[in-house]
Structures are given as C-alpha cells and as structure tokens.
C-alpha cells in the first residue's frame, strides 16, 4: 500500500463515535489475497478497525548462533585476535535478524466495500502490527531503534521469561501489546502478578486470542486455562480480545466474540471493553507515541551586534570567552570560588621569593 493512502488511514484522532469494534490480530503470512479476504470478512461481520499482524517468531540471537559465535571466538583467541570480535558478531546476527523483518502490510482499500461505513458516518481504520518473541533482554532497545520496527503502528512482544517481562515494564514506551502462545502448557511469567500489573498501569495491553481454541480440544483447554489466569491477574482490565485469524473459519463476529468471553467468566458489560474500549485506548496511546516522536524543541539565539554580545539559553559556539566568563560570574557561588582562589602566578612568585 502506498505511503499516501497509509497516512489517510492514520490521520486524525480516534473518536468514540467513529470507533466501535476492533480485531487487532488479522494474521498476514505473505499471501495478500488471503489477507484481503480476511479483512473483507471482518468488515462484513461488523468490525470497523483491524490490525494486520506479521509474526516473525523469535527475533533474538538463537542458541545455535550463540554456539557458533563461541566456537569462532575460541578460534580467534588462539590467534590472539582482539576480544571486540564477540560484540561485532552478536551485533551482526541481530542486524541480520532485523533485516529479515518484512515491511508493514495494509490492504488496498479500493478493493473493500466501505459503503456501509460512509452511510453511517463511520470510517474504516487499519493498522500494521509486528509480533515477535524476545528471549534476550539486552537487545530490547536495539530492536526498537531499528528502522524496521519503527515502521509498524503496533508492536507486540512474547516475553520468553520473567527477565524479559521485567525489562518491558521498565521500557514500557517501546511496547504496545504483551502476548503469548495461547495454547502453551505453561507461561513462565504468568505468576508474576506485580510485574504484569506494572505493565498494565503503564498502558501496555495484554492479548487474549481465541483462534487456537476453535479446532483442537487440548489446545482449547489450555487457551481457557491461560485466559482465566490472565483475566484473574489483571482483574479484567487492559486486555484486548483478538481472533489471531489465519483463515476465514477463525473469525467470529463481535457479538459472538463477546458471548465467547463468558466462557472466561467475563460479563457482557466487561466483554465490550475487550473488543472496543481497551483497543481504543491502545490505539490512542500508540498514536500519541508516534506524534511525540516528531516534536522538536528549539531555543532562539539573539545577537546584539552593536554591543557584540549574544544572548542565548543554550551554549553557542559563537560566544566569546569574555562574554562566557561574564555570564558565569553572574552565578553567586561561582563568583565566590573565583574570588577565594589565589592567582597561580602569584603563588609561584611567593614560592620563589622564599
């Protein structure tokens, strides 16, 4: 999709009047026609906001890469090469992982039937989302300053362990969604109630997805079990309910999704928040972060050409030494220190006379 059309999708604040139901996890696996059909079905079902999700798996340096690096380092040590090679190798592997991240994908809106939204005064919104597993907390910041991740509207992370979750809680401005493999037998950080609530307080949403519960009986039991624990820990707040749909049979209409939440003991009033209220808060937070990144603060420098002085609130390379010293002497404590310190030349002369 072109940059111009993408800006049209994201322009303007998210108003409560125009926003009703959201599915923030429509999976895109590379087949644009399949993704387009999923979005068309979501619109017919009543969703007016979707996120096209690209899941790249574990973005961290893998154990196999680490073993390879260690063997190379042992070989380099025998030839007395500098130890800086270790960092370079790790950085190279991370760069290669980031380079494998595809560009965000949005469907062509000209192929969608949006007449229903126009009649009701609503607007269809679509966002790009990137999801990945993170198993190395040391590379968290490096990932999010990468141009590959900055191009996505929403960032979702699957923490591999408690250490990753703790790092996320301290760098909450980098993450929008915390998710997990919905049908995993055990989520290692689920018992860390305080850390999860810190992330929730910082505005990060947790994800509960239902697609895995629609087919396999064992997976269904695990999805329900994990979901109950998540909902209990977060007290039914800050959770987005998504489809994680990869095929048409994975999608459910908004009313069906809200009814499904009753299986997790979520009442009808709270259920609406899971597919409307909390997604809205999440998207507003994501848009505000994107806006703040573009703010530039500048301080003017005023030059008095007659007196040859420059007045500025920030240091200037054009400021003369005499003017800079005069400004420093206006500080009371600095002036007292200058007056109290004897000149070095006089000290030297007195020492010679003795």
From TrEMBL:
The residues that cross the membrane are none
Highest taxon, organism lineage: Eukaryota
A Pfam family in this protein?
RNase_P_p30
Q: Which GO terms describe its molecular function?
A: RNA binding
**InterPro entries attached to this UniProt entry:** Pol/histidinol_Pase-like (IPR016195), RNase_P_p30 (IPR002738)
Instruction: Provide the primary localization.
Output: nucleus
Q: Which GO biological process annotations does it have? A: tRNA processing
User: Keywords in UniProt for this one?
Assistant: tRNA processing
Heme: is it a keyword of this entry?
Answer: no
* Localization: Nucleus
Q: Which GO terms describe its cellular component?
A: nucleolar ribonuclease P complex
**Start and end residues of each stretch annotated as Disordered:** 73-94
Write out the similarity annotation. Answer: Belongs to the eukaryotic/archaeal RNase P protein component 3 family.
Q: State what protein this is by name.
A: Uncharacterized protein
Q: In which organism is this protein found?
A: Diploscapter pachys
Q: What is the lineage of its organism?
A: Eukaryota, Metazoa, Ecdysozoa, Nematoda, Chromadorea
């Amino acid at each position: 999709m072109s940059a111009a059309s993408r800006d049209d999708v994201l322009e303007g604040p998210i108003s409560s009047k125009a926003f009703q139901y959201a599915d923030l996890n429509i999976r895109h696996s590379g087949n644009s026609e399949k993704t387009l059909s999923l979005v068309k079905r979501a619109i017919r079902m009543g969703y007016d906001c979707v996120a096209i999700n690209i899941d790249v798996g574990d973005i961290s340096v893998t154990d196999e890469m680490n073993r390879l690096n260690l063997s190379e380092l042992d070989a380099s040590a025998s030839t007395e090469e500098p130890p800086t090679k270790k960092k370079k190798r790790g950085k190279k592997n991370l760069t290669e992982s980031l380079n494998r991240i595809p560009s965000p994908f949005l469907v062509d809106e000209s192929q969608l039937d949006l007449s229903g939204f126009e009649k009701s005064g609503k607007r269809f919104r679509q966002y790009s989302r990137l999801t990945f597993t993170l198993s190395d907390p040391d590379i968290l910041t490096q990932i999010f300053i990468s141009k590959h991740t900055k191009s996505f509207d929403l960032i979702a992370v699957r923490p591999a362990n408690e250490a990753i979750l703790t790092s996320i809680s301290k760098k909450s401005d980098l993450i929008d969604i915390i998710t997990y493999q919905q049908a995993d037998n055990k989520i290692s950080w689920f018992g860390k109630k305080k850390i999860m609530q810190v992330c929730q307080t910082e505005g990060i949403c947790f994800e509960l997805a239902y697609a895995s519960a629609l087919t396999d009986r064992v997976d269904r039991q695990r999805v329900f079990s994990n979901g109950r624990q998540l909902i209990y820990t977060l007290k039914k707040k800050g959770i987005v309910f998504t489809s994680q749909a990869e095929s048409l049979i994975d999608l459910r209409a908004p009313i069906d999704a809200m009814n499904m939440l009753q299986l997790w003991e979520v009442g009808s009033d709270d259920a609406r928040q899971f597919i409307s209220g909390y997604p809205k808060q999440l998207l507003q937070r994501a848009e505000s972060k994107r806006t703040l990144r573009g703010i530039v603060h500048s301080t003017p420098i005023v030059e008095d050409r007659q007196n040859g002085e420059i007045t500025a609130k920030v240091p200037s390379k054009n400021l003369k030494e005499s003017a800079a010293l005069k400004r420093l002497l206006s500080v009371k404590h600095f002036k007292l220190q200058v007056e109290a310190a004897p000149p070095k030349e006089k000290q030297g002369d007195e020492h010679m006379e003795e």
